[in-house]
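Researcher: Quick one. two chains, 389 residues in total.
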Amino acid sequence: MNEIEIDRPFLPAEFLTWLWFRCEEHGGTFELSPGDEFALAIDDGLKLHSWEGGDGDARAAFEGGTTGPTVRPEAARALAEGLLLSKARFVAARGSREWTFTLDYRLDLGGVKVKDADEEEAVDALAEKLAAVHELRLAIEHLYGAFLTDRLNAGAWRLEVYRMTEWVRGKLRKRAKSALEPSP
Amino acid sequence: MTILSKGAMSVRAFRLTKNPGQDFALAQLEAGAFAAPESCEEGTVAGWVGPDHLFDGDFNAARVRRGPYLVFGLRVDTRRVPAPVLQAHTQIAIEEVLESEGLQRLPARRRREIKLQTKRELLAEVTPAQKAYGVFWNLESRRVFLASTSRTVVEIFRARFRQSFDTGLEELSAHHLTSKLAEQLGARAELLDARALNLKQELAS
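Model:
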């Protein structure tokens, strides 16, 4: 490892967890530049696991279901147990393009599928598809940069951690409330 | 239809330290084209293929250039004898020698020789596993994408790419991006101090 490269492998997992929080609490719309919106939502296939400071090598996975895995009580419990999101399937949109893809703690894009409302007008469908994958990758790097800007600023991160903690607290309250409701 | 046209795509991203230019890149693809080895030795052989399929050896600019991208493939052939198959054939060969020579046991050295000979014979019969992984390269932005996230394939790709194109290749892994961004933000000390978020502890405090 050279002087610059410092390994903090939990940061991408924190980033994914932060994306989940931002999607649920702030509507999942990010500005890549003024007026240039990138909409993001978690679709399915959540995988969480513990990192430094967590409980050993705890893991959890949630998939499918009628309500979506992010709102499941077990997902709230996994967060409350200190687990971080290590992989998820996302949907994203920007302009006429839509993507579904998985993103993991290595920031690898997996299973990328692209839909473009303008694709019938494309001269070269392959070039368009490659450009769309390239665009998605740049957008993810931009969001990671935005996350790290807050993450590596002690004051900003303290505030964000407070908000994320309240978000999990809120999820736990919903979980407790739903547990008290009589089953149909 | 190309290697990259079908279905969903998983990608690993890289950035080049310099742009070698299209003409040089095409010439180097040709020079580093996949060539089947004459021998049947165990191991992996890799090389570039054209954009269409495993056996595409045409690197003409009109075929490889798609919009701002050069599109081609990395072919990786792996020839290997599965261990249980080798073990079974070796055992049969040893039993044949014991019977033909009227022996009860063979010395370890002889057994090793039989095993090596059996392996050579089996390797000559085995068809290598042949795969091609799509690559697309934006010359202007110096970005290269490999349609695989397998560690083995990524390592073969990096070695092959460096050898062919005489340029540094930064893997845009989470680790690399984190270090780069921290450097840009002037936050190396904060990165060094960073400890993993634990919402369990936060909820308890």
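Strands of chain A lie at 29-33, 36-49, 59-62, 84-94, 97-104, 109-116.
Researcher: Thanks, that's what I needed.
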